[in-house]
Design a protein that fits this description.
Blueprint (H helix, E strand, L loop, with lengths): L3 E7 L4 E7 L3 E7 L12 H10 L17 H10 L8 E2 H7 L5 H9 L12 E2 L11 H14 L2
Parallel strand pairs: 4-5
Antiparallel strand pairs: 1-2, 2-3
Helix pairs in contact: 2-4, 3-4
This protein binds a DNA duplex (13 and 13 nucleotides) through helix 3, helix 4 and strand 5.
DNA sequence: AGCAGGTTTAGCG
DNA sequence: CGCTAAACCTGCT
């Protein structure tokens, strides 16, 4: 299928989400726009994300296109997908799950995550608290709060 | 080779 | 208890 972009508004975190499609889901990114954008949903992933932000969905059916990433990064990201809704894991724990002690490299792999949320990199936190987030820690916090609220 | 990264842990003040 | 400093791996220049 050819490439296309959808846009949805995530009320829970107060910003727009752009979803890029290739042959599979290719990327997800956050848009902090003041202007009102027009929503566009042409694929299932868009609807699923929309439901997610309303707290009605806890998992995604779509595959993510990880080609182009290093084998290590692919391992990290696919393992990250196994983290269940409302749960958090530390960087070092995620590293152990893929049979490595490279917690720091894990952070690096998560930082280049092409599709946040679908690949729940926001559920990976530092041992002493929050850790970072490529799109801004504020968004990470909002996401975790959303999941906390639906999964007490 | 060398450096920096979404860390971690130990060690000192 | 809060802060600095060294260490663990991987990916880019």
């Amino acid at each position: 299928m050819m490439k296309a972009n959808d846009i949805i508004f995530a009320e829970a975190i107060g910003c727009y989400i752009e979803i890029g499609y290739g042959s599979e889901l290719r990327c997800v990114r956050f848009i902090k726009s003041k202007e009102r954008l027009k929503e566009k949903k042409t694929r299932t992933a868009s609807f699923e994300l929309d439901e997610y932000f309303k707290g009605k969905r806890t998992d995604f059916s779509c595959a993510v296109d990880l080609s182009g990433l290093s084998p290590f990064a692919q391992k990290v990201l696919s393992e990250a997908r196994n983290i269940s809704y409302g749960r958090t894991v530390t960087y070092s724990e995620l590293a152990e799950r893929i049979g490595s002690r490279a917690f720091r490299a894990v952070g690096r792999a998560l930082a280049i995550n092409p599709a946040p949320i679908v690949i729940p990199c926001h559920r990976v936190v530092a041992r002493n608290g929050m850790g970072g987030f490529s799109a801004g820690v504020d968004i990470k916090i909002r996401l975790l709060e959303l999941e906390q609220k639906m999964h007490p």
